[in-house]
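User: These chains co-purify. Model them together.
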Amino acid sequence: MHVLILGAAGMIGRKLTERLLKEQRIGSREISSLTLHDVVMPALPENASFPVSASASDFSMPGEVEKLVAAKPDMIFHLAAIVSGEAEADLDKGYRINLDGTRFLLDAIKRVGGGYKPRVIFTSSIAVFGAPFPDAIGDEFFETPLTSYGTQKAMGELMLADYARRGILEGVGIRLPTICVRPGKPNKAASGFFSNIIREPLNGVEAVLPVSEEVRHWHASPRSAIGFLMHAATIDIAKLSNRVNLSMPGLSVTVGEQIAGLERVAGKNVIKRIRREPDQAIMRIVSGWPRNFDTSRAKSLGFTTAEKTFDDIVKLHIEDELQGNYVA
Amino acid sequence: MHVLILGAAGMIGRKLTERLLKEQRIGSREISSLTLHDVVMPALPENASFPVSASASDFSMPGEVEKLVAAKPDMIFHLAAIVSGEAEADLDKGYRINLDGTRFLLDAIKRVGGGYKPRVIFTSSIAVFGAPFPDAIGDEFFETPLTSYGTQKAMGELMLADYARRGILEGVGIRLPTICVRPGKPNKAASGFFSNIIREPLNGVEAVLPVSEEVRHWHASPRSAIGFLMHAATIDIAKLSNRVNLSMPGLSVTVGEQIAGLERVAGKNVIKRIRREPDQAIMRIVSGWPRNFDTSRAKSLGFTTAEKTFDDIVKLHIEDELQGNYVA
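Assistant: Joint model of the two components:
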């Protein structure tokens, strides 16, 4: 099986690559080759047991994605997107990358023809939903995004479902919860603090909490996110029928519960490194975000999280990113 | 107020033009000029009390819609689309006209700048919904279209809402019920029989009923459809908040109830001209269509139908299309 990852240089792309290299197969099928693509050159892994190639280009430029699809990859992970903040700041760029890029991919697949019908796993986002919400967003709740990013993801979901319905491809769209703990440096995304307040204190560094401890949000670990992608790659596609876009399971916790989990796992000293510094702008943004989901459908289709509690999320971060070590 | 109608040569476009010529105003604002556009040249009305111009072009060709928006129309009715059957038969054409066309319009408006912020009324469709349905589709039910046409309308809704949220325009998307009685010749659309079985018998002509009398569907008269457009043009836009796409009110009736209404209004002889000729293909298509809606939100925003019963729909047809005369 030939696997293509679009957006391979991002956090999820890198972790998915690692997982594929380790497992060497997707379900019962061995991976015969892996193609990594991003707008910046993805790192070529060492010691791969199958051929891995990497390339960089702007896949929203006409003709670029055709080159990648010409090799007829059997499995395409479409993770490529510009993020929420950039899509909001640059309207044209957001539609070009997040909508046109997706459309070029789907159309390139269609044009190959000759019975070619790859599986396309598309990472959507809980940003397709917009407040006001019910307490838990169900599987049949409507999409009224409050960002251009969410709009573009919702449009991508629709197009994926249409091309799947027409038999051009096998499509699975998965709406990822906010990834927590996101590894790497603190970033300036409005959602950054959900991870910063866990990751930085464990590094012995102070982190800023800009909202109240009552704020509730929807999280999944990086390990869960990769697990969702792997499961989407092997799921019996017939079970999705024409509703191929799914909200993934996650944990609904308040910031206070996050901090309590961190304390239980890493101790009192660690949580002292969280500094409260209320930020009205961030509070306003966050108030429009989903707090909780009922993901019955995804669960019934076998999607599961790697964590049961927020304590688990902290432990997974220490295990997967810190080799078991943190600054107590 | 300068008004632009895109898709002016279609049934709804022609009836809207008539209504604007008659009323000479939209709400409290006088119409100063009217521009009609379609892919075929719209007929220029006689005896207009304000200047009316007409033009024909493919508005999905880059640059075409800019010419229309350059005149800064205050009110844009965007009715232009290729229909369900054609969008299903020609995937590329459907996306080009129904998605790209809409996007070119919104982007052309954005590029005018200088505080230009027209109201855009977009006709969407109940085809944005796909079976299985609840008994009545509510205002927060998700969009899982089962046709490319429905997909393209759903994508248009999302983009309209995004551009409205960003302050580029005032957007109102209205999901029209199936229009009944659709005037004109019988057409080959799968939904054609809902109107054929009323219109043709009233003309003294036989009509074919391809489904059982138990089939339930969602209807509104042409007069109601024009009423929705006029109301959308004057509604206080702030009341829509960020949820600018609305299912319009209608009547949920079975085919049997349609026939009973026709009989009450026009007599026993007329309904004898309906010939039962079951068609499995049409039955299968229709079984995936919405049957009923809960349109609380549109009603609370003042959208109302011209009819209370299916008898009214028959009477409105006789009044509006047949000058009160039918073949008994």
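The first strand of chain B starts at residue 2 and ends at 6.
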